[in-house]
Amino acid sequence: MADASLPGAGGGAAGAAPLAPGPAQGPGARPRRSIVGTRPWVAAVFLLPALVLLGALVAYPIGYTVWRSLYDADGSGFVGLGNFHTVFSDHDILIAVRNNAIWVLVAPTVATALGLVFAVLTERVSWGTAFKLVVFMPMAISMLAAGIIFRLVYDQDPKEGVANAVVVAVHDTFTGGSAYPGARPRPNGDLKPTAGGSYTSASTARVGTPDDLPLIGIPQNKLPAGARQAKPAATAPDAVTGTVWLDFKPGGGGRVGAIDSGEKALSGVKVQAVRDGTVIASATSGKDGTYKLPAKAAGAQLRLPSSNFSGKYNGINWLGPDLVTPAIIASYVWMWAGFAMVLIAAGLAGVPRELLEQARVDGAGEWQVFRRITVPLLAPVLVVVMVTLMINVLKIFDLVYIIAPSATQQNANVLALQLYLSSFGGGNDEGVGSAIGVILLLLVLPVMIFNIRRLRREGRR
Asked: What is the pTM for the complete model shown?
């Protein structure tokens, strides 16, 4: 009986053709397949639409911007690096460069620090999830909407702006406002203007003779409700007395420097006795306008401090030249601190708890555990957050354009906004605008390269 295992033998294997030999492969050789396990041309077919879109939306605009930056405003004349010289010599553009540096240094650092604090603190409270939801919620708002919100928040009028409403409420709690803004003495009177908006008498105070302090400049309808008739002060042998009143009689006919019928008392006015620049005594006028100082005030000059006449406190000019950039950065942090918190919280969930507990058992305090264990272990996540936010702030545009008023927009200017202004916002110089775009690309490239190398190192671990 023939062996079925031999070639040409009968049975199921009878007549079966031998297998064709495969291509010769050396030891350790692998089939030519891509990393996704398919042939390269198949992968190229699937990648082609994405590559076409990438070329049309990224590669071509970058190339055209670089080419356009070498030509003049209308693109008809080649100027080489002249547009870049304009960028680094124009005062307004240099302000934008300075502000961009402030943004890159401050905004990512503050947002990351707040995100780290929020992530660590909310890990131990029962309502941590709800807090994270509230902090992350601004990420659902567009930059346009956030800009409009904070433009209202920073409004100068305390009745409109939330920030100034809070500031004015706190200020008025500890510092009373003046009831007589704009009040002043008569031009030829005994009271003379002095430093800081105060008024000081040229003569010195005397005991036994009233030292009256008449004022003008207050409309009758601006007087406090219930203002009383002014009364002459009673003389006292051991005190300096006088009256503070509005030296104006409704309808006219009053005497200058004398208390006439119908002239109103100014209550609550602070009167100081000053000798050699030092306040030795002070008093406040009563409801009838009279005041009383001790006898030691005799021989001193009488001063009405500026606090009696200062206007109503209206808060802080958040969008003024000095604070507009910090104010806009604060609005950015409000939006992106939640983003940082969520990423850091995800990294914190992967920190081995046994390391933290072992450190506490060894006697480390919470601050030492945070600084020497938690933060070093979270370093890769913190770097990701910082790099992401740095790239984001380099192209910040919306918040600055919407929040900053036209009067202080130049003080808050950044490169992305200057690119728009130079090209389309009235500058009509697409050459300079393209040069700014190239500079922004060059600023972002080192950060992107650093991030790519870091991701590759992470992938090899």
From this structure: 0.70
289 backbone φψ class: left, alpha, beta (φ>0; ψ -120 to 50): left
Q: Using CA atoms, how far apart are residues 290 and 265, in angstroms rounded to an integer?
A: 8
Q: What gap in Å lies between CA 298 and CA 207, rounded to an integer? A: 6
Report d(CA 285, CA 293) in Å as an integer.
10
Tokens of 345: 């919280």
Q: Which long-range contacts (CB under 8 A, 24 or more apart) does 63-66 make?
A: 65/434, 65/437, 65/438, 65/441, 66/434, 66/438
Place of tokens 């264990």: 373
So what's the pLDDT on residue 30?
A: 54
Can you tell me the distance from the alpha carbon of 267 to that of 301, in angstroms, rounded to the nearest whole number? 20
- Cβ atoms of 438 and 385 closer than 8 Å: no
Q: Where are the domains of the chain?
A: 82-158+318-460, 191-308
Q: Which two tokens stand for residue 97?
A: 């460069």
CATH topology of domain 82-158+318-460: MetI-like fold (1.10.3720)
Summarize pLDDT for 27-38 with one digit per residue, the tens. Answer: 555 555 545 566
- The pLDDT assigned to 32 comes to 55
For residues 426, 427, 430 and 431, what is the CA-based torsion angle, rounded to 10 degrees? Answer: 180
Q: Could you give the CA distance from residue 455 to residue 450 in angstroms, rounded to a whole number?
A: 9
What are the tokens at 9? Answer: 């033998």
Q: How far is CA 272 from CA 32, 247, 267, 303, in A?
A: 96, 20, 15, 5
Amino acid at 116: L
pLDDT exceeds cutoff 90 at 149: yes
Does pLDDT of 453 surpass 60?
A: yes
Give the angle 241-247-248 at the CA atoms, nearest 5°: 155
pLDDT in tens, 177-226: 667 888 889 888 899 999 888 999 999 999 988 999 999 988 878 888 88
| Residue 280, Cβ density class (10 Å: 0-12 exposed, 13-18 middle, ≥19 buried) | middle
